[in-house]
Amino acid sequence: MLPDRSSSLSGYIKLLFLALPVLVGAPRWLSRCSYRIGRCRQSCKENEKKKEKCGPKRICCIPDGK
């Protein structure tokens, strides 16, 4: 019996649904700023200082060089 084409197509769709959350969440994980030194966050940690804005609700936080 020959393999059914729909079975390979459904495999690709399953792979797409597994990869989709990773691709959608990646920009949040990779949001870097200030020449990739800082990270875009809603508020900076204690050992970080504010550098610039990263859009309307986030700021660029760079490590404090103390």
From TrEMBL:
Residue stretches spanning the membrane: 12-31
GO BP field: defense response to bacterium; innate immune response
Location in or out of the cell: Secreted
Domain of life (superkingdom): Eukaryota
Any one of the GO CC terms: extracellular region
Record's keyword terms, sorted: Antibiotic, Antimicrobial, Defensin, Disulfide bond, Membrane, Secreted, Signal, Transmembrane, Transmembrane helix
Domain Beta-defensin, residue spans: 32-61
Entry similarity comment: Belongs to the beta-defensin family.
Function (record text): Has antibacterial activity.
Protein name per its UniProtKB record: Beta-defensin
Organism: Panthera tigris altaica
Lineage: Eukaryota, Metazoa, Chordata, Craniata, Vertebrata
